[in-house]
Design goal:
Acyl-CoA Binding Protein; 8-stranded mixed sheet; 17% strand; single chain; Glucose Oxidase, domain 1; D-amino Acid Aminotransferase, Chain A, domain 1; alpha/beta; 897 residues; 37 helices; 8-stranded parallel β-barrel
């Protein structure tokens, strides 16, 4: 249940990540490869699982194992926990197998009390350090382990600073801090009704239990849900000998990354504070300074600080402590080569000696992930397969975020640290609670805080961007924003935020809650009001990564797009789509004047009147299809014939019906009667798709003629086209036989007259369970299948996509569904039907072309499933094409033996 680690030795290694958690596994690994890691031990994630299963009780035998490993730690350090003459202080930290930065709890300086603090003073000859450590421990322990909110202590600290006329904690004297300790203990006793615990063993067990409890706090649960982290046993507890960054001006602490997590550039990136402990950097309580001279100069250039002022007032760690910095660079290089990935490290310098407290694969933005993967492959650190797998498909969404137009008008009101790139435009809110409430009402919000904490996670998740007055590029706000792919500016000191009035003053402007603000996370600039945005331009590294991905997909599966216009088709092609998997022709019918022709057709009483109205539409449709074929030349284009219920084309209010009647030269009663006649109680299961074509064949025939004429004209012009006609909502083979019969007759007649014969595939959309179960029969007629998973999910699960949102979230929370089935394909139910249909269809036609065109076609898990069950392609919206391409490549690579 407990694993020990110390310099040159450890009980575990990286292979035990699920048991030791990421932090514990990496501490054990670093200890064995010569990294200066303070010794300690890890209580496993299994113990966390046993703790909850055992009614929140520690399992039998744990206390004995902890005692044995504590004795090892005391022997290793030559110190003893709770000993006033030679005290050992420890940190107690969380650490799950998947990194969850800031979501669970940490306690530092454990083991201190009134006697131990005196021993620390004698050993260190530094009373300020000793009292600072004590007051920090009381606050953290009381908050994390004993549910005494830290604000109680923060108020006392601020009052003391105000009384002494200072701004920073570091400006308080040892006497000030000693007085604060007494005040903190009084606050604790007043709230809890008992004295602050002084026994070191009691402190350790209460803290360990608090870390286990934090596994199921609201923010940790929310984080796991929003980041799709499943199947973990719990968190480990890491108990480690303390090293102190708050021992004076030869001590400090920091967070650093082996590369820039914001844009992927290969230089040492990070921040440090002198005379501080780690929480000061991560929580953003003080705005830290840069690691390297290079980084410090880039920062000062961006903030128009001259070199002399920068070197004097804002020295980098490289300048401040060159020996420690040199050692840190060596650690950085060693760890990146060892783990073959960008590392996020926490370090402490105690009296000039460097210690590494943690390393993990660093969180990064989508653009940084792409650049790092491509760069590391070129450097020979990883191979192409690893480079492709290194980028999560959903991260590519971030690359498609809008950016500010170059020529847009902007009024700069402040500048901070460019912590996470992207253009953010929204209404200012000053609390996470309001951010959530406003976002639920459809508002775009920017979350503006003095500093963020893990409690703000839900507000950060719904905000368009995050802006903080304090903190650096490694603060909580910056790290979480980067992982979420949200624009973020941190440490924007010009913001004077007042939570009481919910407003801020900056550059003479008062920005109230609800006022519009914009900012650029790439430059750190904050602007007044709204700034115009435009679509993103993809970087060169993106193209290189996609080329790698396509190598693995080639000949196995490809990606098409759902596109209804040449503009969408052009976008899809630019993003790498190899065809159109779904053109929804009904979308074309709503455009411009053609809606009137559609309405004439619907309101007609006779075949002659309907055909007259359809004759108006036919040349428009031919032009539509020519535009799509030309744009996608060389690639297939699947055109679905008219699908939605006819009533969708007609107005439903009395005023609109009267207006239509006047336009059509009909009576209001005639129009109203026809609207009522077409009304359906459940239109999604009603008069649409192939049913419409069978009852009104003239509609389908018009579209088939338009497709065929467009194909003939382009073929004569030498354009290479691959047209495919899809008949939707087939229940039985006989329906498809009729529809295909119409098509074959029209195509044969027109191609014979034209003297050219573009091959037009005729297939169907499998979206009815009966069709899936009789796919062997349907494949006798169909030349291709395309799964319409939106309707297939509705009919298989008995769910209405439009109405089930009110309860599906609860179903996911209770574990009834793993994911909402309209967002991620239900592989066990709907997926099994699809697999059955593929097996049956290819039993009849072994080379049957099969794809998916429902909205699931761009969802990464679904794309990988489609590859696994043998589909030829997936089709999704144009802006999801890169995501689907990468997901398909992941599926191919993970399926390799």
């Amino acid at each position: 249940m407990v694993y020990f680690f110390a310099a040159g030795k450890s009980d575990g290694d990286a292979s035990l990540r699920s048991l030791l958690g990421g932090k514990g596994a990496n501490l054990a690994e670093m200890a064995t490869i010569g990294i200066p890691v303070p010794p300690g031990f890890t209580i496993t994630t299994e113990v966390c699982d046993m703790y909850y299963k055992g009614g929140k009780q520690f399992p039998a035998g744990l206390k004995e194992e902890v005692a044995a490993n504590l004795a090892k730690l005391e022997a290793e350090t030559g110190k003893k926990l709770g000993d006033p003459t030679n005290p050992l202080l420890v940190s107690v930290r969380s650490g799950a197998a998947d990194s969850m930065p800031g979501m669970m709890d940490t306690i530092l300086n454990l083991g201190i009390n009134d006697e131990v603090v005196e021993g620390l003073i004698k050993k260190s000859n530094n009373p300020r350090f000793a009292w600072d450590s004590y007051r920090r421990f009381i606050q953290m322990f009381a908050d994390v382990a004993m549910d005494v909110e830290k604000e109680n202590f923060e108020h006392a600290l601020e009052a003391m600073k105000h009384k002494k006329g200072v701004v920073l904690d570091t400006e308080l004297s040892s006497d000030d801090l000693k007085a604060l300790v007494q005040e903190y203990k009084a606050i604790y006793k007043k709230i809890k009704g008992e004295d602050f615990p002084t026994d070191a063993q009691q402190q350790m067990w209460l803290s360990s239990e608090a870390v286990f409890r934090s596994w199921n706090n609201d923010r940790a649960i929310y984080y796991r849900k929003s980041n799709d982290i499943k199947g973990l046993l719990g968190t480990a507890v890491n108990i480690q000998s303390m090293v102190f960054g708050n021992m004076g001006e030869t001590s400090g602490t920091g967070v650093c990354f082996s590369r820039n997590p914001s844009n992927g550039d290969n230089y040492f990136y990070g921040e440090y504070l002198m005379n501080a402990q780690g929480e000061d950097v991560v929580a953003g309580i003080r705005t830290p300074q840069k690691m390297s001279v290079l980084e410090s100069r880039m920062w000062s250039d961006a903030n128009t600080i001259n070199e002399a002022d920068r070197a004097a007032k804002y020295p980098s760690l490289e300048e401040k402590m060159p020996e420690a910095y040199k050692k840190l660079v060596g650690v950085r290089d060693l760890l990146e080569k060892h783990y073959k990935d960008m590392q996020d490290m926490e370090f402490t310098i105690e009296s000039g000696n460097l210690y590494i407290l943690q390393t993990r694969n660093g969180k990064r933005t989508g653009s940084a992930a792409v650049k790092m993967a491509v760069d590391m492959q070129k450097e020979g650190l990883i191979d192409e397969k690893t480079a492709v797998l290194r980028v999560k498909p959903e991260q590519l969404d971030q690359l498609l975020h809008p950016r500010f137009k170059v020529a847009s008008k902007r009024t700069i009101i402040a500048k901070g640290l460019n912590a996470s790139p992207g253009a953010a435009v929204g209404q200012a809110v000053y609390s996470a609670k309001v951010a959530v409430e406003w976002a639920e009402k459809g508002k775009n919000v920017l979350l503006i805080r003095i500093e963020t904490s893990p409690e703000d996670i839900k507000g950060m998740a719904v905000a368009k961007g995050i802006l903080t007055a304090r903190g650096g590029a490694t603060s909580h706000a910056a790290v979480v924003a980067r992982q979420m792919g949200k624009p973020c500016i941190a440490g924007c000191g010009a913001l004077n935020i007042d939570y009481k009035t919910n407003q801020m003053e900056v550059a003479g402007n008062i920005i109230k809650e609800g006022d519009w603000v914009s900012f650029d996370g790439s430059t750190g600039e904050v602007y007044l009001g709204k700034v115009d945005t435009e679509e993103a331009v993809l970087s060169g590294a993106f193209g290189e990564l996609m080329a790698m991905a396509d190598k693995f997909m080639d000949g196995k599966i490809h990606v098409r797009a759902n596109a209804d216009s040449p503009k969408d088709a052009k976008t899809a092609r630019e993003y790498g789509a190899k065809g159109i998997g779904l053109c929804r022709t009904e979308h074309m019918f709503f455009e411009g004047v053609r809606i009137n022709s559609v309405r004439k057709m619907i309101l007609s009483d006779t075949l002659e009147e309907r055909e007259k109205a359809l004759a108006e539409l036919e040349p428009m449709q031919k032009a539509d299809f020519k535009g799509l074929f030309e744009t996608m030349h060389g690639y297939p284009v699947v055109i679905r014939l008219l699908d939605p219920p006819l009533h969708e084309f007609l107005p439903h209010t009395e005023a609109e019906q009267k207006e239509l009647a006047s336009l059509m030269g009909l009576s209001f009663e005639t129009v109203k009667h026809r609207v009522d006649e077409l009304h359906e109680f459940n239109p999604m299961l009603g008069f649409r798709g192939a049913r419409l074509g069978i009852v009104y064949p003239e509609i389908s025939k018009m579209q088939i003629r338009a497709i065929t004429d467009a194909a003939i004209e382009l073929t004569k012009a030498g354009v290479h086209i691959i047209p495919e006609i899809m008949f939707p909502l087939i229940m039985v083979k006989e329906e498809l036989d009729i529809m295909v019969g119409y098509a074959k007759e029209i195509i044969a007649e027109k191609t014979a007259k034209a003297g050219v014969n573009p091959h037009i595939l005729l297939g169907t959309m499998i979206e009815v369970p009966r069709a899936a179960l009789t796919a062997d029969e349907i494949a006798e007629t169909a030349e291709f299948f395309s799964f319409g998973t939106n309707d297939l999910t509705q009919m298989t699960c008995g769910l209405s996509r439009d109405d089930s949102g009110s309860f599906l979230g609860t179903y996911v929370d209770k574990g009834i569904f793993e994911y909402e089935p309209f967002q991620v394909l239900d592989q066990k139910g709907v997926g099994r039907l699809m697999k059955t249909a593929i097996e049956l269809g290819r039993k009849t036609k072994p080379n049957l072309e099969i794809g998916i065109c429902g909205e699931h076609g761009g969802e990464p898990k679904t794309v990988m499933f489609c590859y696994e069950i043998g589909m030829n392609y997936v089709s999704c919206s144009p802006f999801r094409v890169p995501v689907a391409r990468l997901a398909a490549a992941h599926g191919v690579i993970k399926g390799m033996k």
